[in-house]
Amino acid sequence: MSKQTSNDLYNIGRMYLYGEGMATDFNKAFEYFTKASNQKHPIATYMLGYMYENGLGVLPSYAQARIYYVKAANLNDPISLYCLGLYAEQGLATKQDYNEAFKYYKKSSALGFPEAKHALAFLYQNGKGVQKDDKKALSLYLLASKLGYAPSAVNAGIMYQYGLGCEANLEEAFRLYNIAANENEPTGLYNVGNFYYHGYGCEASLAKAYSYYLKSAKLGFDKAEFNLGSMYYNGEFVDQNKDKAIEWFTKAKEHGNQKATVLLDEIK
Questions:
Q1: Torsion, Cα of 10, 11, 15, 21 (10° steps)
Q2: Residue 58 in contact with residue 33, Cβ under 8 Å?
Q3: Cα separation of 42 and 34, whole Å?
């Protein structure tokens, strides 16, 4: 019988982790990822960190997770480099250090990881660990969006909407929000709804605004829930219905919307 390669071991570990063709067994997954990691398999090494971070078959530990992320990062695993950036940015199992976060995100971004491009853009936009540069931030958001990362399309849309790092362009903002909405990203859906409601960069349509607000609200987005409540309260596109309005305002309140909290006190 030929020796199992690191890829073989990794794939068996993955099958145990996700229950693909066999019963889920975190202990077995950890065992096989460890064997693959011992053969310097970068993704298997990352998966050990992931299991520690999420407490899958082991006690959750950011410190242990970070040890494996460092090992995988030394094997040029882009996700682990991103995770190290996140740990440095948030101060998980290490001191908070935006300069370190920038370093790790930049390495991960260079390997094509879209979430790292998004995180790097956020640091540029906010001047954390690097000099503030909205143009650079926008460029990175657009790159990440092209790689399919919907939150980056939202952030790029916001920058075009308000002219941050570029000339304000509502049509381009609308296009970017739609990219995110097509991926069922709740903020993107909400923003498309807003644009249809106000006629920003498109022809105004309360029917389409309602449709996009509803899609976003079904994902638990509080601002969309609030706007649906307002449409029912004021009878915009839908029949005026105070009970429906209160239902949506209550959902928005439960998701932390302060405007809904205040309004409920006034109308009940």
A1: -160
A2: no
A3: 11
